[in-house]
Design brief:
This protein is about 80% helix and about 5% strand. Helix 2 packs parallel to helix 6. It has a single domain (about 1-175), classed as Skp domain (Protein Binding, DinI Protein, Chain A, 2-Layer Sandwich). It has a two-stranded parallel sheet. By secondary structure, the protein is mainly α. The N and C termini lie far apart (about 65 Å). About 15% of the residues are buried.
């Protein structure tokens, strides 16, 4: 009876400890891909190009907004002196320009988001390749993205600096 009890206890204990032992053998790392994107040479170039494009388009938008503001000021001055039909026509013209400006703004936002996606997607693919290379070299079982899956981790688990270093050293230049 004691042997049966000891065997059952050993089986249960083994079943409870097995997942813990397997987890203890798993080698983990974390990487901050957003930071890596921002700090690699290619990421810095892409960010500068996107900012220049944004600034140019923002200037264009500001000019159109200023035109609309002047149009509104002129309309407010003229409106009390105008006949109802002429006032309605001018107000409609102003409303049409306002809607046009909103459309331009939405189109520019969409365009910039598309350009950002286009500029960064290739860099992200290369970063993932570098992470894979480091993972194989250092025999990591799992690499987690720091900003989406990790609440806390030892700083020694963070391989972001190594990813940036290898990317800039040429590992990210491969297609």
């Amino acid at each position: 009876m004691n042997k049966l009890f000891a065997f059952a206890l050993a089986t249960v204990a083994g079943g409870l400890l097995a997942p813990t032992m397997a987890f203890a053998e798993t080698k983990l790392a974390v990487v901050d891909l957003q930071r890596a994107l921002e700090e690699t040479d290619d990421g810095k170039k892409a960010k500068a190009k996107l900012k220049a494009d944004f600034d140019r388009k923002q200037k264009e938008l500001d000019e159109k907004q200023e035109e609309l503001k002047k149009m509104k000021e002129d309309l407010d001055k003229k409106l009390p002196l105008m006949k109802a039909e002429a006032a309605a026509a001018e107000q409609k013209k102003f409303q049409d320009r306002f809607v046009e400006l909103q459309g331009i703004y939405a189109r520019l936002q969409k365009d910039l988001a598309g350009k950002e996606q286009e500029a960064t997607s290739g860099i992200f693919r290369k970063l993932q390749s570098v992470v894979g290379t480091i993972s194989e070299r250092d025999k990591f079982d799992v690499v987690l993205e720091k900003n989406s899956a990790v609440v806390w981790g030892k700083p020694s688990l963070d391989i972001t600096n190594e990813v940036i270093r290898m990317y800039n050293a040429g590992a990210g230049k491969k297609p």
